[in-house]
Structure formats: structure tokens, C-alpha cells
Amino acid sequence: MTSKAKMALSYRYSLEPQLNGWFLVRIPAIPEALTEGETEEEAIENARDCLLAAIEGYRKAGKSLPAGDADDAFARRIDLPWHAEAN
Questions:
Q1: pLDDT of residue 44
Q2: Best CA proximity match to 68, nearest among 45, 56, 51, 53
Q3: How confident is the model at residue 72 (pLDDT cuts 50, 70, 90)?
């Protein structure tokens, strides 16, 4: 019987203003997680949802999750409100 450790996930993101006034969010560690929002707040909230969907896709495909990059204290990060099982 194996036990899987629990870990909190945190990923660095960039927030880029677009010419149309919206904001694009990129999560470098997970390139599939790319989204936008009409406001900064909406873009960040959409990024959380997008990140969760990308992580679910990794799991369904049997792929290992990219390591979070929470060690950069000065970067903007998305901290997920739940724990994921480490592979």
C-alpha cells in the first residue's frame, strides 16, 4: 500500500495589459494555462480556474505536474486553495 504526500501548489504568473484593455495571464510553468479577463481581478480569478483545469488535464493524461515555483518571494503567484497529491 502506498501513501501519497499532500502538497500545496503555487505558481508564478505574469499579467500583461492588452491593447483592447483586457489583461492576459500566463503561467510559465504550465504553458497550457493561458487566459484573460476584463479587469486584473477577473484575469487572476480566471487564471485560477484555468490552472485547475490544466492540472486536471495533466492528471487525466498521467503526466507529472510541473513543480510549483513558490520560492520566488517577489513574483506574483497563484496559490491554489487546496492540496494536490504529489506523484
A1: 95
A2: 51
A3: low
Helix or strand run (H / E) with residue 56: helix 40-60
Q: What is the mean pLDDT of residues 4-31?
A: 86
57: containing domain: 6-67
Q: Which CATH number covers residue 47?
A: 3.30.160.250
List the grid coordinates of 1.
Answer: 500500500
- Coil, helix or strand at residue 30: coil
Helix (H) / strand (E) element for 84: namely: strand 77-85
The percent of residues above 70 in pLDDT, for the chain, comes to 75
Domain count, the chain: 1
pLDDT at 39: 97
Q: What is the residue whose three cell numbers read 479577463? A: 37
Which cell is 21 given?
484593455
Quote helix, strand, coil % in the chain, to nearest 5.
25, 30, 45
